[in-house]
Amino acid sequence: MRPIDAVRDRALAGTEGGRILALPHGPGLGILSQGDLERLVERVRRALADRGLELPSSGAPGLVLAGREPACDLPIDGRTGWLGLAWPAAEIVELGTDARRAAGIEDLERAALLADALPQVGVVGPAVRALDVPEPVRPLRELHALLNRTTKHVLTEVPRDEATAEAVVEIARILATEEGLRGRPPLSALAPAEGLQGERLEAAVALARAGLPLGLVVEPALAESLAVTLANALEQALGAAARVLGRVPEARLFLAARVLRTGAHRVPAGSAALRLQMAFVQVAHHLGFAAGVEALATGSRASDWQAGAEGGLGMTAAWMTGPDLVLGAGLRDGGRTFSPVGLLLDTEAFDLVRPIPLGIAVDEETLAVEVIEEVGPGGHFLGEPHTLRHMRETWTSRFMDRDTWETWEGKGRPEPPDHARERAAELLSTHEPAPLPPDVDARLREVIAAHERRGD
Amino acid sequence: MSAVATETPRIRGLRHPFTIEVLTEDELERVHRATLRVLERVGLEVRSERIRRELAAAGARVDDAAMRVRFPPEMVEEHLALIPPSFVMCARDPALDLPIDGSAGWLSGDGTSAFVVDLETGRRRPSTMRDLVETTRVTDAVPELAYQWPTVAPSDVPPHTQAAHYTYVMLAHSTKHAQHNEVYSRRDAQVVLEMARVVAGGDRELRERPIVSTYQCCISPLVYDEGPIEAAVELARGGLPSGFVAMGIGCATAPATLAGTLVSMNAEMVGGMTILEALVPGAVTFCGPYPTFMDLRTGDYRQDWGPEDTLLKLAFAQLAHRYRVPINIMALDTGAKTQDWQAGLQHAVSLFAVAAAGRAEMITGTGTLHGAAVYDNVNVVLDAELFRLICEVCEGIPVTEETLGRAELEEVWLPPSFALEPLEAWERTGRPGARERARERVREILATHEPEPLPEDVDRELRRIIAAREAEA
Fold it and tell me: Which ranges constitute the DSSP H helices of B108-255?
């Protein structure tokens, strides 16, 4: 196993100026043995060949997911992972009451605003579905809501039809800088890999031709064995990639996996989902594709022990295996609800593991032999200048409890969600994302209005 | 061959297919050389005249007035090489013997908390003998816990009898191996050995099948108190595995830097093992690094166990591997005061990292909250599920003709305390979380699990020894 030291580089901690924090890639842990990996790829190659498709083997070299401001540009370079919101939930957990209800466009805007405020979030996708917006006009209105609430890279969905895709391309071109859409794509899009054909495929091709990155998403469905489940998922993802690359050889693609599905249910709980995600990243990287995983999904309906454990497992797997995108922040109940409190807590889980791949600094100063000698047996280090120099290097949580037991009881036994709830409310009332320039906003609205008129 | 059994096993272990390293070979060597420098130049304060005298005869440089023992590097290297790289933690039930040879990791409970969370009231209160018995029974029942620790410190027995009471409870209320971490004097060690011999069937039988192992803790930085170091030697001479634990607190009793903490704590453990091997050559021993940091704002342990703790676990695992010495790693740290999001996150991050470290034969320990100050059986049930889940992850995804050609649908195990019920049922039952589900499981275990009792005559003899120890006051 490659030592973590091989990637130790403080520059991997995030984007310039610290606007966005990164998860440096760790040792590249492979859950599949080399032999198993090769057997699996061979099986997928044969399955694709039976459908007249070639196994694709290259993805998006040198890809940058650009923000509206350059400080939010995210290099997809195999050295760092970025946290993101990706898949919309149908329901939202109310910040004040913890009640569940159907989500709307305002919820989407508020989630994007929170994501903009949190330096741990790099990619801002739709946290919820805007169910109060009529379906035909929803995709572009949701996209506009995201673009208007964040200067970070926006992740949208590949529309179901080519006309809407053309409108998305138009929007992207309005936002493009002089580097063009291929050089600094301000948005990218996810498409379900399963059944990517017909109108949806044409829409994906339109986006890819324009230079927008596409993520091909699978939801592994439990099959006869985990090996078969994995093979099926890869066949879907790589089959979709082959179809897009067959039409647009220069397409910038990445592969993404959601959590395991059994029947109609999505099941983040259990080891199978975790193993599949770890293996998915390994195979995607082996074939040269960037990879995204739904690492923070939890089956829990609250931000409780289970949510913490599943988040911890997902984030640990992430720093070990090195996905390029860590997606699903804030989702609860297997992706059915989005929780603003959950989003903040998930950023803390991300924070907790971020320094691990940076390893341990070993030099004369840090080895501290002289200090140990000076303090001697039975002494203490509290008054040492060495301690003063280094005491701020340790990680500090934002939402975990650090009180004495008595103080904690006196405060009514608060838990991390209580601290996160306060912070979410504060951010929502104080954070003001840089708005779209008025002329840009007007042009975007014009494109959307024209698209809606055509649909009438 | 997998160490993870599939058929409702009495004990479930963690296979070690991965090895994640955080130090390069060169860095590892630098930490080792710095450790030797500390042991040579600073040495250890050893507060036992008897042990200092024996160490002087064995080649250490002893300053008796300062109680200081310094170790030439070659003495350390020579004695580290004597440590057996593997041993077996034997159990009353031989089917529950645990090979300590790097093939698997075994989970234990934590200890020794002065408080428990009362199962019925949910409130913290001082621990009692009844709590010690109940927590031991739960450990015996749960397959993911492979061996016993003294879980709580009973406030209702005289302190000088605690070592004997722990021994009795672990051996009488469980057939799993007992690891004793509360043997504070040579006299305590003699009592523990006497009790262990009674259960094992005699001195020779105990040496052949040590059903008890022990460890002693250094007072950081770099001090071994008289009682513990004498106990360590006495126990090793009696044939019991005798390990050394360091519990440095970064910024307070260890340097503020990770590398400095590694060196300081490594010197404490390596120094302890060198003492043991110098006085009892070939004795079975192991190391146990339990590092933490001080929260400089409160003066308490840092409750938000962070990435530094994970890095130190991985680095210590590498050091133990370099020395070919078995290691007991503390996982499942949490500063949380209940089974909330924080506890779940911290436990998952630390346990998964320890699993990936690829070396931890002994993994300590579930059960405690608030920096090990408070014990709660609910933790045990939840962490056991987490441990099983991670064991499964370590099995990977075998891709073979058989797995690719299987005809029946794969069955997946889901942690029973996780949310699996339909939304309506969840709402109707008051939105229970993992904590509430696990609490029910604890009640069920306590109502149904009866560990195999000791033979009556053995039990009687143990009680006699405890009574005699009580009379020594």
Answer: 129-141, 162-172, 186-200, 203-208, 226-237
